[in-house]
Structure formats: structure tokens, C-alpha cells
Write a structure and sequence with these properties.
Blueprint: H1 2-24, E1 60-62, E2 67-68, E3 74-84, E4 116-127, E5 135-137, E6 140-145, E7 149-154, E8 159-161, E9 173-175, E10 183-193, H2 195-198, E11 204-210, E12 213-218, H3 221-243, H4 248-258, E13 260-270, E14 273-284, E15 287-294, E16 299-309, E17 313-318, E18 323-331, E19 334-337, E20 342-343
Parallel strand pairs: 1-12
Antiparallel strand pairs: 2-3, 3-4, 4-10, 5-9, 6-7, 6-11, 8-10, 11-12, 13-14, 14-15, 15-16, 16-17, 17-18, 18-19, 18-20
Length: about 350
């Protein structure tokens, strides 16, 4: 029995040694080289590229370019005509021009204040639609200096004309259907600081709003300022020529014809009452005197002085410092003197 147990223990011991030896022949495990990249986990949501594109820069036009209104009914071609200290208010061919009638009158609303200047414009308008109804054209404008100094012109001075001779009073124009008269002209202005005329380094734009859409034009301020200087130099040269005294022989001949009293009256209204301003202008040798009576105020004024004959005017120089220039013509010994004098007979 003991021998049997000893034999069994020997067999068990042999099996145990075999099992340990088998485990010693197993090579250690190697990491796999077939590794797939795994993106890191992020708490932030995925951002897609924005579908919103930046707004395009507005198109910049040059004066003289034509633009079509959003409705397609009108073609508008504006011009920037220049800078001036004042432009005329009288609705004739020189309306909105620096050499127009009434430009120096006290009641002219288009005279720039001190430190300012007038920018004046014109435009051609063409109706190109075929609407079966009346169509109205209207616009406003503003000036943008140095990208942010904005001056609103609104409808300032806007009038329309068929022939650039006579101007209406409306700031808009109506085109009727089946009417062949499809062209209009317009003029307008705006008062701005002097810096717009003198600072050429900064950009000046004029923006027209037509049917709710803006159209931007660049202003060549340097060219306009140079043109103004040339115009003023020419006007001054012309004025000097007109005021230059004629030669003695011609002067004596005209003075001889001038002798005596020249009378005329101007009529006006105060409310519904008409009044008269009467002038009696008397030439006596080399002296001149004026007497003026106003029926509204029932007043009489008088003044006296000397005169000379210039190329375009009889120039009256009065003792109180007033000067009046009477336009005249002298042909074939006949003298005609205009009542539309320049200057004043009296110092106020």
C-alpha cells in the first residue's frame, strides 16, 4: 500500500514539472504595429465655414457717366460744374451759374456764408420707359468728404427745364405716357465748408439717391478749384476792361450827349398796394446828381458826385462813397443807357 502511494506521488510530481517547463517556452507578447489614429475627443462643436459673404464695395462712378434708375425707367447723367462763392437764383439760361442774373442780390439764397463755398451741379435726364401711366422722377443728394463728413443737399435748388432756358419750380418731374418729350435738364447746388475746395488729398464723393438706391460719384476737387481760379481771373480781367476809361475824344462826345436829366420809375408791391420808386439822374458838365422818391415810404433821397465814361459803363462815384455803373451803348452818335444799373446810388 505504501509502495502504491509513493508511485502515485511520483507521477503527480512529474506532471507538475512538465507543466512549468511548457510555460517557460512562451515568448513575451509584442504590441501590434497596425495602429489606427483616433481623433481626440473635443467638447467644442464642429464649425462649418460661414456661408455669409462680405458686402461688395459700392461702385464708384465718374461725373459724366450715365446711370439707370432701379425701375429701368430713367437714365440720369450728372455733372459737377464747380465751386463758386454764389450762384444765380434767376430762372434763365444762367440759373445755378456764378455769372447769372441776381447772383449779387441780397435776397439770393445761394450765397455761401463766410468760410463756406457753393458746389453746383447739372444733369441730363432721359425717360426710357414705356409705362401706360404718368411716371415721376425725383432724387436727393449728399456730399461725403473724407469718408464720414456728410452734408445733406436734399432737393436744394433742384429745378427742371426742357431747354435750359426757362426753369420750373418743382423739385420733381412727371413724364406722361406716349409723349415724345422725354428729355429734361436739372440744376442744383449745396453749401459746404471751404475745406472741400482746398484739401485735395481727401476724397470727396457725391451720393445720389434714386428710387431708394444710392449711386456714388467721385468729385475731382482739384480740377474744379483750378477751373474756379481761372474763371475768376477771366472775370476780373473782363471787369477791368469794362471799367477802363475810354479815350478823351470818345469820352467828350458821350458826355456831351449825356447832359441833362434822365428819369425812370420802378414799380413794386407791398402786399396788395402798388408803390413807385422814381429816379432823376442829372448830368451837368463833369458832375452828376441823383434824386430818388419812394411813394410807399413817402421819402426823397439825394446824392451827388462825379462820373467818367468807361468801355461798358457810365461810372458814377458819389460823395458818400456809393458807386453805380450804368450800362450803355453808343452807336452812330446815339446814346442808350440801361436802367439795370450795378452798384448803388446811396450808402445805406
Amino acid at each position: 500500500m505504501k509502495r502504491m502511494l509513493a508511485l502515485m506521488l511520483a507521477v503527480i510530481l512529474a506532471l507538475s514539472v512538465t507543466a512549468c517547463g511548457g510555460s517557460a517556452n512562451v515568448a513575451p507578447s509584442q504590441p501590434s504595429t497596425d495602429v489606427q489614429d483616433t481623433p481626440p475627443i473635443s467638447d467644442s462643436p464642429t464649425v462649418e465655414p460661414s456661408a455669409v459673404q462680405p458686402e461688395p464695395e459700392p461702385e464708384i462712378y465718374t461725373f459724366g457717366d450715365s446711370i439707370t434708375s432701379p425701375s429701368g425707367l430713367f437714365v440720369f447723367t450728372p455733372s459737377f460744374d464747380g465751386f463758386a462763392d454764389a450762384v444765380a437764383n434767376f430762372p434763365d439760361e444762367n440759373y445755378m451759374r456764378p455769372n447769372g442774373q441776381g447772383v449779387d442780390e441780397d435776397n439770393n439764397p445761394y450765397v455761401a456764408d463766410e468760410g463756406k463755398v457753393m458746389m453746383y451741379y447739372s444733369a441730363k435726364l432721359e425717360y426710357v420707359g414705356d409705362s401706360k401711366e404718368n411716371e415721376t422722377f425725383d432724387f436727393t443728394f449728399k456730399v461725403d468728404f473724407d469718408d464720414g463728413y456728410v452734408f445733406d443737399g436734399g432737393h436744394n435748388g433742384v429745378r427742371y427745364s426742357k431747354d435750359e432756358q426757362e426753369w420750373g419750380t418743382s423739385s420733381s418731374v412727371v413724364f406722361e405716357p406716349l409723349n415724345s418729350d422725354t428729355t429734361r435738364y436739372t440744376r442744383f447746388c449745396i453749401e459746404v465748408p471751404n475745406a472741400l475746395e482746398t484739401d485735395f488729398e481727401k476724397q470727396t464723393l457725391t451720393v445720389f439717391t434714386i428710387e431708394g438706391e444710392d449711386f456714388t460719384f467721385i468729385v475731382d476737387t482739384k480740377a474744379a478749384a483750378e477751373a474756379k481760379a481761372e474763371r475768376e481771373a477771366a472775370e476780373e480781367a473782363e471787369r477791368i476792361e469794362k471799367m477802363t476809361e475810354v479815350d478823351k475824344d470818345l469820352s467828350d462826345e458821350i458826355k456831351k450827349t449825356l447832359q441833362g436829366t434822365w428819369s425812370w420809375s420802378i414799380y413794386g408791391y407791398a402786399g396788395t398796394s402798388m408803390y413807385t420808386t422814381s429816379h432823376d439822374l442829372t448830368f451837368d458838365g463833369d458832375t452828376v446828381s441823383i434824386k430818388t422818391h419812394n411813394t410807399l415810404l413817402n421819402t426823397t433821397l439825394s446824392n451827388k458826385g462825379t462820373y467818367y465814361v468807361a468801355n461798358a459803363y457810365i461810372v458814377l462815384n458819389f460823395e458818400d462813397g456809393a458807386q453805380a455803373c450804368m450800362p450803355y451803348t453808343f452807336e452812330n452818335g446815339e446814346l442808350s443807357m440801361s436802367q439795370d444799373f450795378e452798384g448803388a446810388f446811396y450808402i445805406a
